[in-house]
Amino acid sequence: MSDLLKLSVPAKPEYVSLVRLAISSVANTIGFDVEAIEDIKIAMAEACNNAVLHGCKECSENYEVEVCVNENSLLIIVKDNGKGYNSLNYKEPDINCPKEGGLGIFIIKSLMDDVEIYSENGKGTTIRMKKNIQ
Amino acid sequence: MSLDIKSYDNEDARKWILEPKGDIDIASATQLKETLGNLLEKKAQDILLDFRQLDYIDSTGLGIIIGAHGKMKESGNRITIINPKANIQKLLVITGLDKIFIDLS
Predict the structure, then answer these.
(1) Rounded distance between C-alpha atoms, residue A36 and residue A41, angstroms
(2) Candidates A21, A32, A103, partner chain B, best to mutate (most B CBs within 10 A)
């Protein structure tokens, strides 16, 4: 038995906090502990940041957030229709040479249990991430 | 969801002290960028970020701190973070940024 929530969000910075608050509330309701809720909040925000910064060609476009609430896990899907990128070119951040960008995806992968990213040049990006209740 | 940044010049320590309160996220990160830029333009010296009252920071905020760190290195100055809350400390550790910004001495 699972519930599905869908949000369509304008690709503007000011709406990311709304999604962050919403996911925090959902995660709290289904019994994640405080640390896991923080992890989910940040991962959610980073996925939205990605859609806002790189995903949508124009600010008037929306990106889609789906949250699948399961008994023992939360599955989050963030999908934009933007320019996408070649995921083979993604490099993990190098602490000896820190850069201003590229941290978001790394943070998502570090904090969530299961992360899949589908992206293709010109076809947008979909981030699927799952967190299990411990 | 807002960000308020207090800043002052600690002349004895020769440091800018910044006390951000609230959330540094994609919507508010430019405020941090402008504050850092303005202070360093006034006087190039070390910066101490006191995160005691900061509840949240994301990669856009961390990116701005990394950017300022890069620029400040040219003048031999550095940024240090103190008093991060547990969620922010965790983020600094997983990104490895604790090694650059947390002063253990």
Answers:
(1) 9
(2) A103
